[in-house]
Design a protein that fits this description.
Blueprint (H helix, E strand, L loop, with lengths): L6 E5 L7 H10 L4 E7 L18 E5 L2 E4 L3 H10 L10 E8 L11 H11 L4 E6 L5 H17 L9 E5 L8 E4 L5 E2 L3 E5 L5 E5 L3 E3 L7 H6 L3 E5 L10 H7 L7
Parallel strand pairs: 1-2, 1-5, 2-4, 5-6, 6-7, 8-13
Antiparallel strand pairs: 3-4, 7-13, 9-12, 10-11
Helix pairs in contact: 1-4, 2-3
Length: about 260
């Protein structure tokens, strides 16, 4: 007898055996046929990189739990286009629960969000989940499952597929807010060091120093104890700077 339950593909950037993805997998199990295809090891801040310069290795840890030694985008791509992973096209793709927030401009660096974005690019509704380190993952996963259930039941929007970024606060949520992407301003830090062999290496980046304009943003909502839900766009063209492109191209209207 065919299994007509919804297909839910899960990925992350912390690794297929991470606690966050395990909690999410368990919480959404009642919603459908859940299949995990996630990186073998941590892939934080890999953004939307795909691996084209080496082969990708696969491990099946147990039925419906797979790891790939690549990025989150690699994992979703393989799951969608290599028939062994999924019985059919997934109904939704979930990414997370990430061990740490993905707020503000972190959306450009996040491997967690890239896993969801890869699905949305392919026309599949997707949602990324992130929470501070040390949260009650079972509680957060239950909240995530309720949001995933709503996504499953939602009518597809006109245009591109839905891509939602969800961040949870550290404690029990006071509610949910629909937010916009804020700004995360990081320390611009480069730390040079030497290894035991005397060869130089670098650590780059630093902690968040400020969040810029916070009104209505994801960072504001989470800081005030709310779950933040942000709709992300796939359209990369900037109407705001079209006039500059026209000028640079030498196509300005004749005065």
């Amino acid at each position: 007898m065919p299994d007509d339950r919804p297909i839910i593909l899960i990925t992350n950037d912390d690794g297929a055996l991470a606690a966050g993805i395990g909690a999410l997998r368990k919480a959404v199990a009642p919603l459908g046929h859940v299949i995990v295809v996630a990186p073998t090891r941590e892939q934080s801040a890999t953004s939307h990189a795909i691996t084209i310069d080496r082969p990708l290795r696969h491990i099946e840890h147990e039925p419906d739990l797979h790891s790939i030694d690549g990025t989150p985008a690699d994992c979703v791509y393989l799951a969608l286009f290599e028939p062994r992973f999924l019985p059919r096209r997934p109904d939704i793709v979930l990414s997370g629960i990430n061990h740490g927030p993905n707020l503000g401009t972190s959306v450009f660096y996040s491997g967690t969000i890239a896993g969801a974005r890869e699905a949305a690019i392919r026309g599949i509704p997707a949602m990324a989940f992130s929470a501070p380190v040390g949260v009650d993952l079972a509680r957060v996963a239950d909240d995530a499952a309720r949001l995933a259930a709503r996504l499953l039941m939602s009518e597809p929007p006109i245009g591109s597929a839905a891509l939602l970024n969800v961040n949870f606060p550290a404690g029990p949520a006071r509610g949910i807010r629909v937010t916009r992407v804020g700004r995360q301003i990081y320390e611009e830090s480069v730390i040079p060091r030497r290894d035991p062999g005397g060869r130089e290496y670098f650590w780059i980046g630093g902690r968040v120093t400020e969040t810029g304009d916070v009104e209505g943003t994801d960072a504001e909502a989470v800081g005030q104890g709310y779950v933040s839900v942000t709709a992300l766009a796939l359209e990369a063209t900037s109407p705001e700077h079209r006039h500059l492109a026209v000028h640079i191209a030498g196509l300005d209207p004749i005065a």
